[in-house]
Amino acid sequence: MRVDAPELRCQVVGEGGNLGFTQLARVEFALAGGAINTDALDNSGGVDMSDHEVNLKILLAPAVASGRMTEDDRNRLLEDLTDEVADLVLENNRTQSLAVSLDERRARESGDDFRDLIYTLEKSGLLDRAAERLPSLDTLLERREAGQPLTRPELCVLLAYGKMSLAGHLLESDLLDDPVTESYLLGYFPPAAALAAGRDTLHAHRLRREIVASQVTNDLVDLMGATFVARVARDTGRRPDEVVRGWLVASRLADHRVLLRQMAEQSTLDARVAYRWLLGLSRVLERTTRWVLRNVDPDASPARVIDQNLEGLATLREGFADVVAGEEAALFEARVREIQDVGATGGFARGLITLRFLDQLLEVLDIARSTGSDEMEAARGYYQVSGAFDVPWLQRAVAAAAGDDLWEQRAAQALLDDVSAAHRTLATAVMQRVRDGRSVDDALSETLTARRRAVSRFRDLVEELKTDDELGLAALSVAARELAGVARSAAP
User: Fold this and answer.
1) Distant-in-sequence, close-in-space partners of 78: CB < 8 Å, separation ≥ 6
2) 445-451: which pairs have CB atoms within 8 A and are 24 or more residues apart?
């Protein structure tokens, strides 16, 4: 029986078999307000299960061939692992469907990122836009004017191609051989299977790199979205595998898997709150990834960078409420109260909101190392400098001035980088005075006094800008330049 999409009297469709709908019908149903994925996404569990079965047999084959395990033993083990493998497959499918829901929200706010992804995939020769029934540039512009972003079926297609593209880049890189990716191989197989095969056999699996590439890709894209790697690569000039390297550092330092589990355990949350938290976490990880790309040697092992920062970060996160100051302290407390009001526990709320400042805490650790300072003292100096120079206001104003225009957003990101660099230079100057025996308060006061005229000119400019209801990037760039001038003059 053939039924046209407008005739459906339902709000949600789960496509139980391949090609129950044409792609045009899916898009038509979605544009009319229905919720639908693609058949490929809705039926991916079977493919995933088959992949696990084949990879398990490859893993256990050496044990059978050597006589350490009989074929009957192997078959019994596979049968015993049925529920564990099913859970792994279902989790993959849950996070993949969630990824589309998160990208739906991103597409409403940043449609240009998805347009750029389509162009990038087309240019690489991987995507045939017409064959996949993706809208043309003119159609995208018409949709934007009508307030209709890309639909779920279209986002499913972009998710798939984005993953294929990223996995291909990873397979061409040496990142998959870094120790930081080992957990992805271990996490793919049930522990009993890995134990039966042995560690050496596990690492010798002939599809090890392909497994790790797919697992890293799923972990990153399902949280960060289909456009994340392409956007950051475009803005920073880095290769996709280098962006992933930076993200792996950021995600491990944030302990994102524990956070995701804790979010899921906050059972009183409704879906809208959960989506907001997940999108917030992805923004934190993007800022931190950009910080890593700016500040960490690209040839450094991610595992070594993580080890270098874990202990200091733990100290700062534990004592963050005691060192954060000024507007950032008020923001911290307000956000903690906000998520407690929707049912989060106090400890979880403070831990989650502390992560909002993760890139700043990494900056503090770098300042502490470069000046030989205690981490907590460096944090006090950093946040006192932040308050003294209205850094939070300036950053917020720059971000707000960018609007939806892609080039304005890139210009705003460059300005934010300039403000962060000046902030770091000033905090370093303060901490070098602390190292010479001053208190943080005295060191800040001396730094401000030594450059009294430049500081006064910057503060007068900020006060003038605060009275303007329609600030543009041009005006804010003047403030950023003045701040950079103060920082240069204060630098030792």
Assistant:
1) 53, 56, 57, 60
2) 447/490, 448/388, 450/490, 451/486, 451/489, 451/490
Residues 6+ apart with CB under 8 A from 278: 98, 102, 223, 260, 263
**DSSP output for 6-61:** GG---SEE---STTSS-HHHHHHHHHTT-EE--HHHHTHHHHHHHHHHHHHHHHHH
Nearest to 246 by CA among 309, 294, 196: 294
Q: What is the mean pLDDT of residues 49-62?
A: 96
Helix (H, G, I), strand (E, B) or coil at 180: helix
Cα 99 to Cα 159: distance, rounded to the nearest angstrom: 8
Q: Give the C-alpha distances (Å, rounded to integers) separating 438 from 367, 431, 441, 442.
A: 17, 9, 8, 6
Token pair listed for 211: 């497994």
Both ends of the chain: CA-CA distance in Å?
A: 78
Q: Please name the residue that has the structure tokens 């880049």.
A: 169
At 268, is the pLDDT very low, low, confident or very high (cuts 50, 70, 90)? low
Residues 6+ apart with CB under 8 A from 437: none
Return the closest-CA partner of residue 186 out of 198, 176, 194, 196: 194
Instruction: Tell me the C-alpha distance between 34 and 28, whole Å.
Output: 9
Q: Report d(CA 382, CA 359) in Å as an integer.
A: 13
Spatial distance between the Cα atoms of 453 and 460, rounded to a whole number of angstroms: 11
pTM for this model (two decimals): 0.91
Give the span between the Cα atoms of 47 and 250, in whole angstroms: 31
pLDDT tens-digit readout, 102-143: 999 999 988 889 999 999 999 999 999 999 999 998 898 898
Which ranges in 372-405 belong to alpha helices (H)?
375-388, 391-401
> Which ranges of 372-472 would DSSP assign to H, the alpha helix?
375-388, 391-401, 406-435, 440-450, 452-466
Is pLDDT at 197 greater than 60 in this prediction?
yes
| Rounded (to 5) percent helix, strand, coil in the chain | 75, 0, 20
Residue type, position 325, single letter: A
How many other CB atoms are found less than 10 A from the CB of residue 12?
Answer: 7
All structural domains of the chain with their residue ranges: 6-240, 365-490
User: CB-based burial of residue 286 (10 Å sphere; 0-12 exposed, 13-18 middle, 19+ buried)?
Assistant: buried
Q: Which of 51-55, 73-77, 257-261, 339-343 has the lowest mean pLDDT?
A: 339-343
Q: Following CA atoms 128, 134, 136, 137 in sequence, which dihedral angle do they give, to the nearest 10 degrees?
A: -100
Q: How confident is the model at residue 492 (pLDDT cuts 50, 70, 90)?
A: low
